[in-house]
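Q: Convert this sequence to structure tokens.
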Amino acid sequence: MEQTTADPPLDILRRVFGFDAFRGEQRAVVDTVVGGHNALVLMPTGGGKSLCYQVPALLLEGTAVVVSPLIALMRDQVEALRHNGVRAACLNSTLEESERRETERALAAGELDLVYVAPERLLNGSTLARLENIPIALFAIDEAHCVSQWGHDFRPEYMQLGVLRERFPGVPRIALTATADDRTRREIAHQLFPDGTETFLASFDRPNIRYRVGLKDRPREQLLNFIRGEHREDSGIVYCMTRKRVDEVAAWLSARGLVALAYHAGLDQGTRQAHQERFVREEGTIIVATVAFGMGIDKPDVRFVAHLDLPKSMEAYYQETGRAGRDGLPADAWLVYGLQDVLQVRQLLAGSTAGEAQQRAERERLEALMAFCERVGCRRQALLEYFGETHPGQCGNCDNCRQPPQTWDATEPARMALSAVYRTGQRFGANHIVDVLLGQANERMRRFGHDRLNTFGIGREHPRATWHSVLRQLLACGHLQPDPEGHGGLRLTDACRPLLRGEEALHLRLDVLEAMPRRNSRAGGGAPAHSADWEALRRCRQELAEAEGVPPYVIFHDATLTALLDLRPRNREEMMQVPGIGQHKLERYGQRFLDVLAELGGGGAPADTRRDTRRLLRAGHDPAAIAAERGLAPTTIQEHLAQGVENGEIALDEVLALDPATRATIEDALLDNGEPVTRLRPVFDALGGEWSFETLKLVRADLRRRAGSAEAVPG
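A:
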């Protein structure tokens, strides 16, 4: 591809993908791969992993080969790339014979920038032989955690990909995943990079996702209230543990007027495919699914992920919730769970046929998740610490930070409960233990003689719900465990001994049922407040998507529509500054959206929306928090701040802390490149990339303010 600047990677990023700057580790990864080196990339879903190999693919000679485990993922990626003007194709079992031959011809002729292929097809001898006859730019191994035997996404073919090093020496390889604990990272490196690799570990934080955990009580009604209250018109995913429950919940939601489709391995392939297609292509569709759904789904506008049952591990929870808000706009991770969830998952683990080491690892992962659910402090802090990342807490975007929970001294009730478990022989379930504590003189109690125990009736001062809460949290903190034989009985663990001996106290979370959620002021939780204008842009996008037979997000992401509304570009040049609009999409769709904006009335970000941003800034929120609170893209908030500085509504010092020397350096670079209205890329390059585009924009805005108010200031 023809380069137009002295920085080819940045030029590709801008012209093809429509972004002004790389994020986080992206640039370092790109430079590593372009330099011919291997890379292992661990980056959260929505963090921009694909750009880490797509940009090098357009810079290096030859065709990039992308190993992808799912056909749906290949199709989505290829569709999106083609709409950005990139020559991409895939080789998989769904292709007609004529399509396959044409793809193979284009591959042999060097007419493809990227080709996506499943590991099974890649390892086919004829495929490898065909690739040996053409220049290969790089190998990208997506969803690299599939190499791990510890995970539920394990694909044995991934363990054979070491053949790429032997057959294609000197071709750089890049492995990418959004989910990998320390054990899995080591396994990926061992299996795929025995010759060594550079590892890039990005922050696992997804600040746009709000984490919420509630007590399960009539879960279907809770879910319905949540969706109707906060996500009435949004796409979302609801996870359930069993196929039967998936079918029931999907039917129940559908009967109440929602578009809810079931997805699990028990459905025939045609039904699964049809439901997945509807979910991807239609807005406002909900998928109710087992964990069989989700890997490889590249739908950026999923506004919520709900769990009606407890996931099996912290990794599973992170991966599943990470399917929400890939476009950077606000999204919800919503979970309800109760005592039976803990018992069920623990019993499943106890019945595992895996080796002792793997069973122990699985128990540790579950215990981490239960600790997360019962946590009284910042959930984001706990989640990130699990993946080895520090966070100061007080994220402002989880339920515990927004409404801190209460705790109570449960030392004596906990001892009562543990004593009741012990004195009944450690073979009875939670309901029986609660009956003992409450002194329920029923036939079963008399048959076992438990009405004569000294623990019978000692807990009458607390209601049944409190005792269920105590038992659940004792299980969560490891003081109790279910009967390993799977009969539902509860047993003491060694961890409870200090508590029973009076050597430690125990404070537990006070359970509170989640109130009916209040309807967000903005439609659906992620859409802008000006809903009529928003719907006009969505209609335009939907018409284009239907005409081309692609999902709406392939045309533009929600974040791009939001930026269009807030920036209100009036011409093609201004539209080119909107994040997510590259040259190809500008030529293809630009005028259509400019016409819609003209009908709505353009002219830059409305004063009231900038005012809201200023208000939150002065209340102590940083730009990321403002974006999350307002449901806007971070780039939009930065534009508001820059406009505010330029208009004299915000002082530069309110937004940016710069020492005088640094400020003078940036100002000199801006002025040296023409005047304060210059494009920022040459300035960024001249300063060696030391300061972000956001910083440069703000300093430029202040220069413009001073130039406007002091055209009269002598030189």
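Residues 264 and 292 are 6 Å apart (CA to CA).
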